């Protein structure tokens, strides 16, 4: 099956958003006028990953669907902002901004002559709402979204954005070892939102170049203290190979390199293993995202904008979409109490000038409350119309410690409540939330047990 790779290409900015189309790869032929996209699978990678991570899994999922008689699927794998071949984009760098990037990319691809792709763009929500009616008149196609780790939370933000602007949800959204709720405490998430607000227009930015791009920008540092403390525990980091430890290791290796470059991809791998303590497999995976240094220099550099990646990781750890798993989607019933600020609230806070810490905290709290109310209304309305998103959560059995028992209990409770809701509805209704554990897999489920992953996800592509 032919792979079509497209690097980022500029599109006209709309209402304050300015980002090139995300770099993407079609797992198979791209849609054309003669062979339009009848069904679309969108694959989203994790932190420090790239579109290449999903190339083989996407092909196998589509092939499994074709063997079951569900042909016509196209699979689109993208690079998130600041990853691999995609641009860094503008602040705020959040989970919600990444979801907007995906929507904008789909809209741009549709406009560029890939018929059949879902309508709706990633511009400001009011622009999305303006286009919702037109998108609704377009022929709806089946859409399945699957995201690993950070990409799973982007998939949830994508589902919520589609609900906000009146677009039909995906037929299924799969989270691959990705926690719907915050990895940090609600109290910490509130402090993070206040720090973003206090930073003003540059808070949480990370920048697109210079010192900020290496993660050392003064404003960005305000919201990085906890990750740095976690990464500083070298012994624990080496043992767990946690994302915070790995990101810090990559930052150190790139910072020490002359002009940020290495003689070869193998040299980068050797540095990450020998000097930073990463496992050989993980170092090899990270080094996939290298690109040649511009002439006359020789060698390679890591393609990621690490300062922005660090901001995205911070947003991932604090964003909370657990309300999407609950019957009735009531935010007041969210585990752990009030939900912390999500991507959109963080973005509003980061752009708002404030005076003093108290004003920053108040502004962040107000923005979070408004976002929560809007999200609750959208999801409850969608549920009443039978359009609430169908969610599947896959847990890597060897990564239970990474989830924590409390998070796993909440996940099981959400699945049980969904099963009870489906049974009460009768008529063969299927549970809206499903949870599966792949026992032999760690966090990188699509690497450790690709067969098990395909077995779970591929039926979402089968005819209803």
Automatic annotation (TrEMBL):
Keywords: Hydrolase. The keyword Hydrolase applies. Gene3D superfamilies: alpha/beta hydrolase. It comes from the Eukaryota. Pfam families: Abhydrolase_1. The keyword Hydrolase applies. GO terms for molecular function: hydrolase activity. InterPro entries: AB_hydrolase_1, AB_hydrolase_fold, Serine_prot/Carboxylest_S33. Residues 40-161 form the AB hydrolase-1 domain. SUPFAM superfamilies: alpha/beta-Hydrolases. Belongs to the peptidase S33 family. This is AB hydrolase-1 domain-containing protein.
